[in-house]
Design brief:
Length: 208
C-alpha cells in the first residue's frame, strides 16, 4: 500500500496524471484487501475518474473489475451486478478479454450473495471455466473450478455460506472465506495467492 501511495504522490508531483490514477487504483485494491472497504471504494472510483480524464483506457476494464470486487466486499449486490453486466457487455462488443473469465466468475459470487437458485450460480462458474479453458488461462480456470466445487460441496446449504471473494472482508469484518478446502490444502506442492487469484506451482529442477 505504501508503494501505491508513493507512486501516486510522485506522479502528481511530476505531472503524470495517468500514473497517479494507476496508483490510486492499486491503493484502493490494497485497502479493500485489508478490510478498509469504504476508503478502497473511494480510491478506485477516483482512479476511474482519473483514467477517464486522461483517456487511459487500457486499465479501465481492470479498474471496473476491482470496483465490482469492492462492491461485493461491501455487499452492494445491485451496484456490483450493474458493473459486472456492463463489463461483460463491453467485453463481448469490443474485445479486451484479459479478465473475461474472472468477471464471469465474480458474477457467480454476486448471485450467491443474493441467494439466487443454485443452477443460476453454477451456470456462471461453468461459463467462467469454459472461457478460461478456451483461452488457455489456467489460473482463472482453477479459480472458477474452486468456486464451483465449494458451491457444490455446500449443496442445499449454499445460502448459509458467505460469498467467496479472496481474502476480502465484509462490512462487519467477517472474512469471506474462499472455500472449505483451498487449493493449497488439496495440492500441498502449490501455493494459492488470495491477492492475485493465481495458483503457483513450483517447477522441479532438472539436473544438468
Amino acid at each position: 500500500m505504501n508503494k501505491a501511495i508513493g507512486d501516486s504522490v510522485q506522479s502528481n508531483e511530476y505531472g503524470f496524471p495517468q500514473w497517479a490514477a494507476g496508483g490510486l487504483m492499486l491503493r484502493g485494491w490494497a485497502r479493500v484487501e485489508v478490510g478498509e472497504i469504504e476508503a478502497g471504494l473511494a480510491d478506485i472510483r477516483s482512479s476511474i475518474r482519473g483514467l477517464e480524464r486522461t483517456g487511459t483506457l487500457i486499465w479501465m476494464q481492470f479498474a471496473h473489475y476491482l470496483l465490482a470486487r469492492a462492491l461485493v466486499a461491501d455487499e452492494q449486490w445491485a451496484k456490483a451486478t450493474e458493473v459486472v453486466d456492463r463489463l461483460l457487455a463491453e467485453i463481448k462488443a469490443a474485445g479486451g478479454r484479459w479478465y473475461e473469465a474472472e468477471v464471469a466468475r465474480l458474477r457467480g459470487d454476486i448471485l450467491r450473495g443474493q441467494h439466487k437458485p443454485l443452477p443460476e450460480i453454477e451456470a456462471c462458474y461453468e461459463s467462467a471455466i469454459a472461457i478460461a479453458r478456451r483461452q488457455g488461462a489456467r489460473a482463472w480456470e482453477l479459480k472458477a473450478m474452486e468456486s464451483l466445487e465449494a458451491l457444490r460441496e455446500a449443496g442445499t446449504g449454499h445460502n448459509r455460506w458467505r460469498v467467496p471473494s479472496s481474502s476480502m472482508t465484509s462490512t462487519a469484518g467477517v472474512p469471506l472465506v474462499s472455500s472449505p478446502r483451498s487449493w493449497a490444502e488439496r495440492r500441498p506442492t502449490s501455493r494459492y495467492s488470495a491477492t492475485t487469484g493465481l495458483v503457483l506451482t513450483p517447477v522441479a529442477r532438472r539436473s544438468l
